[in-house]
Design a protein that fits this description.
heterodimer; A: 380 residues; mainly alpha; two-stranded antiparallel ribbon; 69% helix; disordered C terminus; B: 450 residues; Rossmann fold; seven-stranded mixed sheet; 14 helices
Amino acid sequence: MKNLFKSNAVIMLVFSAVVLSAPIWADPIGANYPDLLQKFAIFGLFAVGYNILFGLTGYLSFGHAAFLGVGSYAAVWSLKLLTMNVFLGIILATIISGLFALVIGFISLRRSGIYFSILTLAFAQMSYSLAYSVLTPITNGETGLQIAADDPRFLDRLFGITQEGVAIPSTHFFGFDIKSMDGYFGFYFAAVVLIIGFYIALKIFRSPFGLKLKAIKSNQTRMTYTGFNTRPYLLSAFVISGMYAGLAGSIMVAIDPLAGAERMQWTASGEVVLMTILGGVGTLIGPMLGAAIIKYAENIFSALNNTELTQMFNFAPETIQNALVFIVEPFVGKGWHLSLGAMFMLVVIFLPGGVMEGVERILRLFGIGKKKKVVEGDAK
Amino acid sequence: MKKNDQTPHLDRRGFMKKTAAAGVVASSPMFFMKGAYAAKDFRNDPKDSKTVTLGFNVPQSGAYADEGADELRAYKLAVKHLNGEGDGGMMKTMKPSMLKGNGILGKKVVFSTGDTQTKSDAARASAKRMIEKDGALMISGGSSSGVAIAVQGLCQEMGTIFMAGLTHSNDTTGKDRRRYGFRHFFNTEMSGASLGPVLEKEFGKERSAYHLTADYTWGWSQEGSIKKYTEALGWETKAAVKTPLGAGDFSQYITPVLNSGADVLVLNHYGKDMVNSLTQAVQFGLRDKNINGKDFQIVVPLFSRLMAQGAGENIKGIFGSTNWNWALKDEGSQAFVKSFGAEYGNPPSQAAHTCYVQTLLYANACEMAGTFYPPEVIKALEGFKFDGMGNGATEYRAEDHQCFKDVLVVRGNQNPNSQFDLLEVVQEVPRAQVEYDSKEFGGELGPYEV
C-alpha cells in the first residue's frame, strides 16, 4: 500500500487518464478545442524531453527549438517526398533531430554552465538564420514549408495510394485521417505519443542512468573523481532530449503539415525553458504543467478584448466595471506577455520549485505529502 | 464506433490500452455530440442562433502592426454597418447589393479577433482558435502574403471561407489559390503591368535597377513582376538582394547600392520595413546622386498611405502603385472615407478599404446564396460583378478568385494639403491593361466540398 503511489503502473494509469480526459476537464476553462489540446500535448512532450537534460543534469540549453524545427522540416519533407502516412515522418524526424543533436551536443558539451548555454543559443540562432534565408530551397524561408498537390510522394506512388477529389492530400496514420473527429483524433494521437514519451522519461528518471545524470547535477567534479567519465552520459541526455524535441516538431507537422523558420527562433527556445521552470525543474509532471499554463495563456489571454472584459465584469456597477476593465486590460490581449511575466516572477520568488512545489505544499497541508515523506524516509 | 478506431495502435502495451480505452470512453459523449453535429451540416452552422460570428485575424505586433490596427478598425466598422448601426458607409453605394442592415440573413454579426504576429504558426493557431472555439464562419485578415497563404490553406482544410485582407503576392490567387480563399486586393503582376508604362515615361528606357527584396513569398513575387515589366522596357537589373522581413536596419544593404552602378533602387518592402529602408536610402543621399548622367531614382512598387505617413518627407516624388486611395472622388470611396473619418478621426488606408469591402462582399454573398453553407456562398462570389466599392466596376474572377479592377499609380505628394494628403494619383490604369490569363501562375482551386 505504501508504495502504491510510487509504482510505475499506477502513475501511468493516473497520468493516461488525466491526459486522455483533457476534453472534459479543459471544457470549463474554455480550452476544449482541438488546436489548443494538441498544443498542450505537443509542448508537454517537448518539455518532458527538455527536462531530461535540464532537470536531470542541470545543463541549461537555450537552443532546443532548433531540434523542434529540424524535426518539423524533416517530417514535412517525408510527407512531400515519401508518403502521407505520418508514421514514417515521425520516425525519420526523430532520428534526424537526434543526429543533429549529436553534432551540436558533441561541440557544446565541451563547456559547461553559462558557456554551454551560450553555445547552444548560438547554434540555434545559426540554424534559425540558415532556415530563414540561406537554406531557402529546403525550408522555403519565411513563407514556410508546405505540402503541395504535385509533390512526388514516391512511396505513395509506388503502392498506388492516391486520395481522390482533394486539392491537397491530408496526413493519416495508417489510414486514419489525422483531421477526423473534428480534429480530436489529432489530439488523441498526440496524447498517446505524449503518454509513451512520458513513460520513457519515467523509466529514465528511475534508472541507474537517470541517477548518474542526477549525480552530475549535484556535483560533476565529484563524479569525475569517482572515476566516471561524465561526458558520454551528458551527450546521451542531450541527444535524447533533442530527439524528444524533434518528435514534438514532427507531431506538430503530422497534425498541421507546415513548418516555418520561426519555430527555431530563440524566443521559442526560451519558451521551453520558461515552461520547465514555471512547472518545476526536475519533476516529472512539472514541465508539462508549465507547458499547459503557457499555451493556455498564449491562446486564451491573448484573445480577450475590451468587449469580452466588459461582459466579464458585468456583475459590478458601471464605474467599478470600467475601473476593473481599465486595470485588467493591459494584462490581456496584446499584453498577455505581461501577465505571463508577472506569473513567472511570482512563481520564481515564492515557489522556486515551480508550480509542483505549490502542489506539494498544498498536499502537505492536507497531510497527504507528509505520509509520502515518511515513505521516502523508510526507503532510505 | 470511434472507440474501435482508437485502439489498434495501442495493442502493444496492455495496460496502456486499458487506460486509453477508459479515457476514450470517458470522453465519448463529446464525440457523439460533435459527430452528430458535423454529420449533415457544415462546420459552425449558426442554425437557430441569433448571431453569426466572423473571425478577424490581423497582425497586432511586428512589422505590419500599423496596417493590422487599421484593418481591425475597418472590420469593426463593417460589422457596425452590417448590423444597421452608423451611417451605412459603402452599403449604400454598393451595386448590386442585397444587404439590408439587419446583420447577415437576419442574424446579428459578432466577431472575434486574433493576432497573427506576422508568423504562419501563430496565424494558423489563432485562426484555428476562432474556428474551433469561437465558431467563426468566415476568417478574414492578412497583411503578409506568407501568412495569408498559410491561413488560406488551413481554411480550405477546415471548410471555412477565407476572405483575404491585404495580401499582394501573385501566389495567393496563383499557385497557392484555394476554393475557399478570395482576394479583393490586387497583386504584384498588376503592379508591374500598371507601373511599367509610367516608369518608362518618367525615367526612360535606359536604366539599371537594383532590387532590395523582402525575403518571403510576396517579396519574391513582386521582384519577379517588376523585373518582368522593367526588363521588357529595356532596363537592366544589376542585382536583387534579399533582406529578412522585419530587419529594422537596412544600412548594410544600402551601402552596396551606391557602388553598383545602378541608377534606380526598387524597394520591394512593405510596412515598417519600407519606412526604414526608404528613410535610410534617403539619408544615405541616394536621391541626390547622379549616376550614368541620370538622376538616381527610388521606386516603391506597393505603396500605402500609412507607410507614406511613417516615411514623412522622404516619400515625396516617389512612384508606386496602390489598390485604393482615400482621396478618390467616386461616391463609394467618399461614403467610406466619411463614415471611417467620423468613427476614428482619420481617413482609412488601402488595407482598411480592402478588409471592409471583403466583409461586405462575404455578407452579400450569403444573402445572395440565401444560406451560410460555404459551397453555395462560394458559388455566389465566383464571377460576381459589382460596382460602387471605390474601385469602379470590379469582377471576382471565378477561375482563380482574384478581383479585377482598375489599379492606381501614385506618387508621393510634393505639396500635401494635410497630414493625410500624401499620395497623388498619377494615373488610373484601366482593368484591361492589368488583366492576365488565369492559367498564368498555375495552381488548382480544389473541391467545393471538404
